[in-house]
């Protein structure tokens, strides 16, 4: 590394892979551990946060002392590359590390990953998830605690085998136990979490909570599903079909009528399958499906898996990653899903036949949120390119500001729209009742979600 490189790094500023430190201390080692748990990175010692070069004094034994300290405070022990560079007459030390193959790496018993230009301490679930990813195994392949083959329903297993053989994607021969062995769903001594979730005799403890809402606070109907995964998918679809509207069209070419559902059924089924197959089963949170007058939202515990981003998901140019490999394999073999991450492109294709329908998705706190929404009237305010109920000018302005800053406060809204806080709250209340916006989280740390 030379002075020109240092200058370029300072100009670029701190990032997911770059950190400035004025001196060597525990914060440097914490950052190094966070880099190894993410994409790797570089720490420049002798540079302040604002990019000012202060330099650092080093002696003959300094590098070895730093290396020994890094090794002793990380587990597995990290040995970074250290290099000295002269920049504007000052000594700048660069410490670089690659992403570690077996994660997570700890610093003094704590675990961090790099998020933006800061270190984020990992939760217990994130530690477990990162470890499983690095070992290329999934939670559903581990033995289900205190479960054995006697806890599985033979009829459900045989129905699964018949469906697999009918699709032609795999041939299962022999008895049901042999078939599950072949698919690695059971072993001689244990039943996997996947087998328990797919074929259990009794409720699994993982719920899907469905509700029909008039407003975000007014519940018309409520249902909790808790069965095996194949059963829950079908029960979800039955509930959705019972709640959405259907029209009938007679073309004149035939006396038979054509059913036109309020939402494209293949898209609904694909979203339900995505939630069931890819949810984080380490999370205690339920899958939540909310049906409004002109919208359905699907909340799935567990954010995007691996290094997949929202932008990649929008463009379909991504490598599929599977959180629950055995569960995904089972649904693939029955023909319910495609294995290589084409579900969202199929949803988009189905939605194109509904011109006024919007398909949105985003990461939400502790999970992933998908919505299908539509309406029939054009907006008359300042919201461009959307379709929804008629908004007043003030409501349209509030919606635009919420789109730009989901954490905006009512006080800030009042200042920008130039109306009182009381008027802001009244408009927000009206839009919430119509299902146009929703508040997630607490009043202090939550955020707004525009649903139109």
Short recap of the structure:
By secondary structure, this protein is α+β, with helices and mostly antiparallel strands.
Residues in helix, %: 25-40%
Q: How many strand segments?
A: 18
- Overall average pLDDT: 86
Low-confidence stretches: 377-389
Tell me, what's the shape?
flat
Give the C-alpha Rg.
27 Å
Compute the number of helices.
Answer: 15
Task: Give the distance, in angstroms, between the N- and C-terminal Cα atoms.
Answer: 51 Å
* Strand composition percent: 15-25%
For the biggest β-sheet, the strand order reads 10-9-13-14-16-15
Helices and strands: which structural class? alpha+beta
Largest sheet, if any?
6 strands, mixed
Can you tell me about this structure?
This protein is an alpha+beta fold and 452 residues long. Helices cover 35% and strands 22% of the residues. It contains 15 helices and 18 strands. The protein has helices at residues 3-12, 26-36, 62-73, 124-134, 154-167, 176-182, 193-199, 229-243, 265-278, 310-315, 325-333, 343-351, 393-404, 410-417, 421-433, and strands at 18-21, 41-45, 74-75, 81-87, 90-97, 106-107, 110-115, 118-121, 208-215, 218-225, 246-249, 258-261, 287-291, 295-301, 357-364, 367-374, 437-440, 447-450. The strands form 5 sheets. Strands 10-9-13-14-16-15 form a 6-stranded mixed β-sheet, covered by helices on one side. Strands 1-2-5-4 form a 4-stranded mixed β-sheet, with helices on both faces. Strand 11 and strand 12 form a beta hairpin. 33% of the residues are buried. Residues 377-389 have low confidence and may be disordered.
């Amino acid at each position: 590394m030379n002075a020109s490189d240092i200058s370029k790094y300072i100009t670029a500023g701190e990032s997911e892979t770059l950190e400035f430190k004025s001196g060597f201390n525990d914060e440097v080692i914490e950052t190094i551990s966070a880099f190894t748990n993410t994409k790797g990175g570089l720490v420049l010692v002798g540079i302040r946060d604002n990019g000012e070069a202060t330099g650092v004094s080093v002696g003959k034994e300094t590098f070895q002392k730093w290396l020994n300290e890094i090794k002793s405070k990380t587990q597995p022990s990290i040995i970074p590359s250290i290099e000295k560079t002269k920049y504007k007459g000052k000594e700048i030390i660069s410490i670089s590390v690659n992403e570690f193959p077996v994660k997570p790496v700890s610093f003094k018993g704590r675990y961090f990953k790099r998020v933006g230009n800061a270190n984020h301490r990992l939760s217990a679930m994130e530690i477990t998830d990162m470890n499983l990813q690095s070992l290329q195994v999934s939670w559903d392949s581990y033995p289900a605690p205190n479960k054995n083959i006697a806890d599985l329903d033979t009829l459900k297993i045989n129905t699964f085998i018949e469906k697999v053989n009918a699709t032609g994607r795999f041939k299962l021969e022999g008895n049901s136990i042999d078939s599950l062995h072949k698919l690695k769903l059971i072993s001689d001594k244990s039943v996997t979490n996947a087998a328990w979730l797919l074929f259990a005799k009794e409720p699994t403890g993982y719920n899907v909570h469905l509700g029909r809402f008039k407003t975000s606070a007014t519940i018309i109907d409520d249902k909790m599903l808790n069965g095996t995964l194949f059963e829950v998918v079908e029960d979800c679809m039955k509930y959705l079909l019972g709640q959405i509207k259907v029209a009938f069209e007679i073309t004149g070419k035939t006396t038979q009528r054509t059913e036109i559902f309020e939402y494209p059924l293949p898209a609904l089924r694909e979203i339900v399958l995505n939630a069931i197959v890819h949810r984080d089963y380490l999370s205690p949170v339920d899958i939540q499906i909310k049906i409004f007058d002109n919208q359905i939202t699907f909340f799935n515990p567990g954010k995007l898996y691996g290094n997949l981003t929202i932008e990649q998901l929008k463009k379909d140019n991504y490598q599929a990653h599977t959180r629950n490999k055995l569960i995904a394999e089972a649904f693939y073999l029955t023909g319910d899903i495609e294995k290589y991450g084409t579900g969202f492109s199929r949803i988009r294709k189905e939605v194109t036949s509904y011109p006024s329908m919007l398909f949105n998705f985003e990461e939400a706190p502790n999970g992933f949120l998908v919505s299908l929404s539509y309406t029939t009237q054009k907006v008359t305010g300042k919201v461009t390119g959307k379709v929804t109920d008629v908004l007043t000018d003030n409501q349209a302005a509030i919606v635009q500001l919420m789109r730009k800053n989901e954490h905006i406060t009512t006080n800030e809204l009042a200042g920008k729209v130039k109306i009182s806080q009381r008027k802001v709250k009244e408009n927000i209340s009206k839009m919430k009742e119509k299902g146009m916006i929703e508040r997630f989280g607490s009043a202090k740390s939550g955020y707004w979600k525009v649903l139109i």
